């Protein structure tokens, strides 16, 4: 089946709300709207102090674009596995749900592992958070993003365990959708960071 | 409290005020979107190394990045299919972030 019923429908039908929409989903979107401001501030700070470091190392001396591109691609594909997990639970495929949830958590772990490797390499090249403005703003921005991804992995693994215990039936697909919204948000934030921080000349 | 307040409205009255959600796409659509995202990422990385694109590199990268952002938000986050209230909340956050960015960047650029 190409189209699946939006899971918000069932919840709304069972518990009418003042907006006609599920409050949990509304809460997540409100949080994501506020998180836009959070990351917007961090990205803006990075952009304002861009090229203002008095001492090195500078971005062009240490960035490894091919390496970060693979990392960005991994996170992008984790968004696909996340929506496939949602599609699986919506059609009642519990095995598919677990496989795609685990795949998403694995891809997220690869991304965080890659970021850890990148950070340690940068530190070996002399870029620490206190060495210059680039180091301070770069580690703050990418570090907070990495923390968001880590929280997302914990949420995904919690869902995986909940499913294993048989407590995630198709009627609870909205829970997976809300977790997915968070996961896709960290993906779109990285899309912006990847372009503005790594690719822009 | 909101639940109780909402219970006072009939479903017909609620649906007249709030746009209803539409069915979400299936796995086939998600895979097609992923393919487009992969191609856009490949183009994005390739243009960085192309000398011919260098004069227009910044706008090219920004357009490609915005396209990827929009695809994920519209299809994977279902903003294309869900209530516009969700879109409004997200866009409001993005707009506020944009306004603050411009407000901070303009003095910084002027001081250069």
Characterize the structure shown.
The complex is a heterodimer of chains A (201) and B (112). Chain A is mainly alpha-helical. Chain A is built from 7 helices and no strands. Chain A has helices spanning 8-14, 23-48, 59-62, 65-90, 94-124, 133-164, 173-199. In chain A, helix 2 packs parallel to helix 7 (173-199) and helix 6 packs antiparallel against helix 7 (173-199). The longest helix of chain A has 32 residues, at 133-164. Residues 7-12 of chain A have low confidence and may be disordered. Chain B is mostly helical and 112 residues long. The radius of gyration of chain B is 20 Å and the shape is flat. Chain B has 2 domains: 24-81; 83-112. Chain B has 5 helices and no strands. Chains A and B meet through helix 1, helix 2, helix 4 and helix 7 of A and helix 1, helix 2, helix 3, helix 4 and helix 5 of B.
Map the helices and strands.
The complex is a heterodimer of chains A (about 200) and B (about 110).
Chain A (H helix, E strand, L loop, with lengths): L7 H7 L8 H26 L10 H4 L2 H26 L3 H31 L8 H32 L8 H27 L2
Helix pairs in contact in A: 2-6, 2-7, 4-5, 4-7, 5-6, 6-7
Chain B lengths: L1 H6 L3 H7 L9 H22 L8 H20 L7 H27 L2
Helix pairs in contact in B: 3-4
């Amino acid at each position: 089946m190409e189209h699946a019923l939006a899971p918000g429908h069932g919840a709304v039908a069972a518990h009418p709300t003042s907006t006609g929409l599920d409050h949990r989903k509304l809460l997540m979107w409100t949080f994501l709207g506020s998180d836009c401001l959070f990351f917007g501030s961090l990205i803006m700070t990075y952009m304002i102090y861009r090229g203002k470091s008095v001492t090195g190392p500078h971005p062009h001396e240490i960035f490894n674009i091919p390496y970060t591109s693979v990392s960005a691609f991994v996170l992008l594909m984790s968004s696909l596995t996340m929506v496939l997990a949602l599609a699986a639970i919506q059609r009642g495929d519990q095995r598919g749900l677990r496989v795609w949830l685990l795949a998403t958590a694995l891809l997220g772990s690869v991304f965080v592992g890659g970021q850890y490797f990148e950070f340690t390499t940068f530190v070996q090249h002399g870029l620490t958070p206190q060495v210059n403005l680039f180091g301070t703003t770069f580690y703050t921005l990418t570090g907070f993003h990495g923390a968001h991804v880590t929280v997302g992995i914990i949420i995904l693994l919690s869902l995986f365990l909940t499913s294993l215990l048989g407590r995630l039936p198709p009627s609870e697909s909205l829970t997976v959708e809300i977790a997915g919204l968070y996961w896709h948000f960290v993906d779109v934030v990285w899309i912006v960071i990847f372009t503005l921080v790594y690719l822009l000349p | 409290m909101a639940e109780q307040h909402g219970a006072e409205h009939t479903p017909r009255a609620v649906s007249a005020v709030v746009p209803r959600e539409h069915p979400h796409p299936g796995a086939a659509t998600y895979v097609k979107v992923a393919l487009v995202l992969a191609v856009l990422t490949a183009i994005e990385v390739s243009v960085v190394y192309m000398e011919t694109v260098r004069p227009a590199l910044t706008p090219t990268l920004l357009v490609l990045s915005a396209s990827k952002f929009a695809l994920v938000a519209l299809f994977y986050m279902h903003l294309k299919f869900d209530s516009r209230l969700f879109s409004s909340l997200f866009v409001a956050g993005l707009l506020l972030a944009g306004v603050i960015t411009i407000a901070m960047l303009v003095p910084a650029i002027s001081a250069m």
